[in-house]
């Protein structure tokens, strides 16, 4: 799955219906706008299997649409193969990070660099909080954090 130039990124959260599909859609739009989308494999996934096959949360979709971004992502769980095929796995909080590191330790040829997406935030907001039980404003906050982090990540890896 890794592209010849070796650029692939997987965004991960707990359920793959709120934060990670927003991050994936934001990054895909940025890469498209910068003319580099063809150099990247971009996807998102969940640490849990709760929402497999589901579309993103309607509030997340509305937030993206408000910013002129569409996504047709369907939730999926992170697989062992992901650790062997993706260069970067960027997650949203410490719980995601623990789950991913635990899963990666059982994969012999894991090559993915696992990090918090928030580690790229110029405003140093390390954790991207789950907006599931929150309001539209919380989804907007996630969107803004994803924009800042994805911009910095793309700049560092293009």
TrEMBL record:
Keywords: Cytoplasm, Hydrolase, Protein phosphatase
Matching CDD domains: LMWPTP (cd16343)
Record: active site: 13, 19, 130
InterPro entries (UniProt xref): LMW_PTPase, Ptyr_pPase, Ptyr_pPase_sf, Tyr_Pase_low_mol_wt_mml, Tyr_phospatase_low_mol_wt
Subcellular location: Cytoplasm
A GO term from the CC aspect: cytoplasm
Catalysed transformations (reactions): a phosphate monoester + H2O = an alcohol + phosphate; O-phospho-L-tyrosyl-[protein] + H2O = L-tyrosyl-[protein] + phosphate
UniProt domain Phosphotyrosine protein phosphatase I: residue ranges: 7-156
Main subcellular localisation: cytoplasm
Keyword Hydrolase belongs to the record: yes
EC number: 3.1.3.2, 3.1.3.48
GO function terms (MF aspect): acid phosphatase activity; non-membrane spanning protein tyrosine phosphatase activity
Role played: Acts on tyrosine phosphorylated proteins, low-MW aryl phosphates and natural and synthetic acyl phosphates.
Assigned protein family: Belongs to the low molecular weight phosphotyrosine protein phosphatase family.
Name of the featured protein: Low molecular weight phosphotyrosine protein phosphatase
Organism: Cirrhinus molitorella (mud carp)
